[in-house]
Amino acid sequence: MTSLVAIERRIEALRDVPALGRDAAEELLRLGEEVLEAWLDAKGEEPGRDTHEGFRLLALHRQGARGVPSFNACRETCREIAYHCNLLSGSPENRDHLERMMGMLVEHLNLFVHGKMEVEGLGEFCCASRPLRQQSAVEERSDG
Q1: Of 26, 23, 24, 47, which is closest to residue 35 (Cα–Cα)?
Q2: Distance (Å, rounded) from C-alpha 128 to C-alpha 142?
Q3: CB of 107 closer than 8 Å to CB of 11
Q4: I need a labelling partner for 67 at 20 to 30 A (CA). Which of 11, 22, 98, 116 fits?
Q5: Where along the chain do its domains lie?
Q6: Distance of alpha carbon 56 from its chain centroid, rounded?
Q7: Residue 140: CB partners within 8 Å, gap ≥ 6?
Q8: For position 120, what pLDDT does the model report?
Q9: Taking the alpha carbons of 89, 94, 96, 102 in that order, is the dihedral positive or negative?
Q10: Residue 11 DSSP symbol
Q11: pLDDT per residue over 17-63, tens digit each?
Q12: Residue 82: CB partners within 8 Å, gap ≥ 6?
């Protein structure tokens, strides 16, 4: 199982590559799936292999949200990742923009899941990782 920190590093590395190429959408989609696999693993569940609306990512989200209503806060992020993946499967003129946007969405999903693993109530009010960022800022001030 890939750690969320390793996934974050891979997303950052992809973001620094101009014109990621044809495999970018597939790689970003796979990273999104790995984020949700990490969530399910942390809950003691085996990630499924099913798809929903043609995407394993959406099926993994549904599986991860069972019994955790606040996890639905990242549902639209997952749907946006799938949407951008569909857009990138063609050859649109604004490919670079779409790749960057899909990368930001996968990064957002990773931040949400990472924060949700650390802060149980994260997502009950919005999908922002504000409690995690606030804790990080407090820790930085106490270290400095």
Answers
A1: 47
A2: 24
A3: yes
A4: 11
A5: 4-143
A6: 13
A7: none
A8: 67
A9: negative
A10: H
A11: 665 555 778 889 999 999 999 999 999 999 999 999 999 999 999 99
A12: 29, 53, 54, 55, 57, 58
Strand, coil or helix: what is 122?
Answer: coil
Yes or no: say if 131 and 117 are a contact pair by the CB < 8 Å rule.
Answer: no
CA 6/CA 9 separation, integer angstroms: 5
Burial class, 101, CB count within 10 angstroms (exposed 0-12 / middle 13-18 / buried 19+)? middle
Tens digit of each residue's pLDDT (9 = 90 or more) over 92-143: 677 788 888 899 999 999 999 988 888 765 555 444 445 555 555 565 566 5
Which residue type does 39 have? W
Whole-prediction pTM: 0.78
Contacts of the segment 126-129: beta carbons below 8 A, 24+ positions apart: 126/73, 127/73, 127/74, 127/76, 127/77
Alpha-carbon span 99 to 118, nearest angstrom: 29
- Evaluate whether 1 touches 35 at the Cβ level (below 8 Å): no
